[in-house]
What we know:
By secondary structure, this protein is an alpha/beta fold.
Amino acid sequence: MANLLLTNATILNWSPRVVLPNQAILIREGRIAKIGDSESLTANEGGLPIYDCEGALVLPGAICAHTHFYGAFARGMAIPGVPPRDFPEILRRLWWGLDRALTLDDVRYSALLCLIDAIHGGTTTLIDHHASPNAIDGSLSVIAAAVEEAGLRGVLCYEVTDRDGAERAQAGIAENVRFLREMERRQDDRLAATFGLHASLTLSEETLRACTTANEPFGSGFHIHLAEHEADEEDSLARSGVRTTLRLKHHRILGARTIAAHAVHVDASEVALLRETETWVTHQPRSNMNNGVGVASLDELLRAGIKVCLGNDGFSHFMIDEWRAAYLVHKVAKRDPRAAGGETILHIAAEHNAALAEMFFPTLTLGVIQPGAAADLMIVAYDPFTPLTGENAPWHVLFGVESRMVVGTICAGKVVMRNREITTLDERKILSEARARAPHIWARYAALVGN
Length: 451
C-alpha cells in the first residue's frame, strides 16, 4: 500500500462532528497516520506523493449496507405488456428472469458496472447479495476479483432459494460454503463473506435447515430479505403458521451477525424478536418506493432498539441520494416533517453502517477520519454559499451535495478516482463491453420469462 499526503482538505468528520479547513491527512499502509494543518504536516512529511484537495470537502467513504451487483443490466430494460401490479409480479416478470439470463462473464461485468458507479459516488464499502441461477459455481469469486480490481471493499454472499429447484438450491448452499472457506483462508481486510438467503417465501423448511447446518462451522450470520412485501408474511403464515420473523428465528437464521433487508411489514412482535436477537435491519427507501411495497417504520424501529442501516438495493451507489430519499419519504408517509430527521439519517447511514461493516472487517475502524482509521475517503467539490459547521453538516449534505461534486475516491489509502477519472478500472472499455452484452442478456431474459 502506497503512502500519500492529502493537502488543502476541508475535513468533514461525522464522529466527532467537525468541519476543519486547511487540513492535511497523512496516509500510511492504507490507514490514516496523522492529521494536521497543511503547512506544518507538509513541511514535516516531505517527499511523499501529494494529493492537493484544493479546499474540497474530505468525508469518510460511504458504506452501502445492502445492494445487488447482479442487477446492473436491468437499467433501461422495459418489461413488455401491462405494468406489473405488485412486487411479487415484479419479481416474476423482471428479476427472476434477469438473474437466470446471466453467465459468469455477465456477472463480472454487472459487478464492474456497479463498482464504477460506487467509485464515482464515493462509496468504498458495499455489502452485496448475489443471484445467478444458471451461473452459480464460482460466481462469488468472480465478483470478489472485480471488487479487488476496482480497489474497494466488499462483503459477498449467494442468495439460496428453492424457486429454481432443489439442485440449484444445493448449489447456492455450496457456493456460500466454498466462499466462506476461501475468506477464512485469506483473512482479507477488503473482502469478506456471509451466507445468503433470498427470502422466507422462496425457502422450504428443508432448505432452511440445510442452510443453518451448512453455516454452523463458520459462525457466520445470514443476509436475507425480510417482509419486503405482505406476500412474505402471508406465505410464512400459510407454510408454518407463524409470521416470517418467528419462522426465521425457529430456524436460527436471526442473530447479531445477520442482516435482514427491508422489514417493511413486520409487526410489533417481530420487532421485539429482531431486537432480542440483535439482528441488523437495512432500509432501502428508493427501492421500496419504486416497488410500491410501503415504507418501513424507521423511527419506530430505532426507538425499539433495532440496529437499522441504509442500503440501496441496487439503485445508484451515490449513497447520499439514499440519505435524501430516506429523509423525505417518511415525512410524506406520516405527513409529519419531524419524521426521519437529519440527525436520524446521519445516525443510521454513517454510524450504524460503519458498525455493520466493522463486524465483517474487525481489524478496521471505518466511517470516520481519525488517526488509525482506514483511509477510505471521498473528496467532494462542494462550495457552500451559507456557513458549513459541524452542527448543520447533515443538512448541507442532504440539500447541497450532488453526485457530480464527487471528484475523488480513496479506499485503503489507494486513490481509485482522481479528478473524476477512475484509476483502477478501464471505464470506457467496461462500458463498451457492457453495451455489447446487454442485447444478448435482454434476449435471454425475454425468452426465459416468455415475453
